[in-house]
Amino acid sequence: MGDYFFELISYVILVFTGIFPIANPFSTAPVFLALTINNSKKERNRIAAKASIYMAIILLLFLCVGALILGFFNISIPGLRIAGGLIIIVTGIKMLFPDTNRTNEVHLPSENENIAFTPLAMPLLSGPGSISVVLSMSDRVSSAHSTKEMLIGYCVVALGIILTVFACWAVLRSSAKISRFMGKSGIDVLTRMMAFFLVAIGVEFFLGGISEYINNARFTTMV
């Protein structure tokens, strides 16, 4: 029983490590600070909480209906993993080698605009990369051998998503302290480190998708 529990915990952590580098709240923190520069600490905390809730809703929604979306568009699991891997690789490369010619101007929205949803929750925290990872995980879970395994798989991924959301909320809530402590260069170094792991994760997704696609093609040919 104990070994099974620790195995589930390891899977939750695996889900967390797959999504958190893509969400990368450390790179969102400076944007969050710029967008809430005129807000009080209480208001900033409320916006951080709302952005985290929106992030959870988006990712959990794609987790629950991911299989339906794939079925509707007739997308195979290997195809999804290849596409998701490419998106993650490109995202990581862009983070590793940012375009220095572009200015990092931040659009300050009016009070009527909900910055918690856009741009914080979507696309900064739960963008295409995070959604691709969740969709791929949803596909793996839906292909479980039994209903019990499938339900456990969904619960594990959901816990990993919630853990990621909680970590992102903590980073946003502490963004002012983190920014002062790490400085611009420190945040840049951390972002590049996460970008490196992001590229590695994307390569694993891509190669795994190609391998599965080739194996499926061979099986179809043999049949």
Automatic annotation (TrEMBL):
InterPro entries: Multi_antbiot-R_MarC (IPR002771). The chain crosses the membrane at residues 12-35, 47-73, 79-97, 150-172, 193-214. It is a multi-pass membrane protein. Keywords: Cell inner membrane, Cell membrane, Membrane, Transmembrane, Transmembrane helix. GO terms for cellular component: plasma membrane. Pfam families: MarC. It is found in: Cell inner membrane; Cell membrane. Belongs to the UPF0056 (MarC) family. This is UPF0056 membrane protein. It comes from Desulfobacter postgatei 2ac9.
